[in-house]
Amino acid sequence: MITLALPRRYPSYCGANIWPLAALPELEVAFKALGKLIFDVGLMVAYHCDQYVSRGMKMRKDEGLEQILLRSRCHKGRLLYYFPAQLSNHEENGDSMSSWCGWHTDHGSLTGLTCAMFKRNDVEISCPDSAAGLYIRTRSGEIVKATFGENEIAYQIGETTEILSQGYLCATPHGVRAPKGKEASGVDRSTFALFMQPDWYVNRRWDEKLNFLFNCRDEKLKFSEDVYIHKEVFNAEVLLFQLIPSNDSLTFGEYSEMLLDKYYHEKT
């Protein structure tokens, strides 16, 4: 249950959706159906993530990524739109790997993505530049273009999963490269992303003897001192304990606020 106080405390997580019912009445149903599909498949991905992490660290049944996502009310689906750049910007910045969206890592747990749709003057077209699109940086530092089709879903690991897995799973640095050249003028990009993340507030504790899940006062995420925040966020790779005292714990809502405050403070 979401009380009246929670939207005031966490407005970015608890705000009501605003649907264009008159202009596009089918959007709400289609949006929720796609989000549910990405979520259901994401739980399968999370299960296998847990199997991998459990080989290197001990986890209680309720501590794995699958259970964290299953009990959360905090997942966010977003339609992402990339405005067409001016021709001069294409020519000047087209070689940049992050010219449409700068390098960053998502701060949640797991992000599900559909492939991109490109349009010019509201008409869908093929991307005029094969080098444009989503790029990721691997653990070894290699930059790779992420290519997947319209009937496929891509998933990226977020920072919270890296932290809670003590680095066994690594957040995925990524950026989006805009098309360049004369043919790219007026071309925009659209995609759908489901940001899967822990509940911002509520805690549940698993009792192994009773095989039952109890509600507790608040959910605390335990942070280890030897996990890094990626350099894409602060222009320098910093240890997490520089932001959060070692072995301290925060709710996901508190962690989000701290990270965003730090990010925008560094940008100003």
Automatic annotation (TrEMBL):
Protein name: Fe2OG dioxygenase domain-containing protein
Keyword NAD part of the UniProt annotation: no
Family (UniProt): Belongs to the iron/ascorbate-dependent oxidoreductase family.
Membrane-spanning segments: none
Keywords, alphabetical: Iron, Metal-binding, Oxidoreductase
Originating organism: Gossypium klotzschianum
Coiled-coil regions listed in the entry: none
Domain spans labelled Fe2OG dioxygenase: 81-198
MF terms in GO: metal ion binding; oxidoreductase activity
SUPFAM superfamilies to which the protein is assigned, alphabetical: Clavaminate synthase-like
Tagged with keyword Signal: no
Listed InterPro entries: IPNS-like_sf, Oxoglu/Fe-dep_dioxygenase_dom
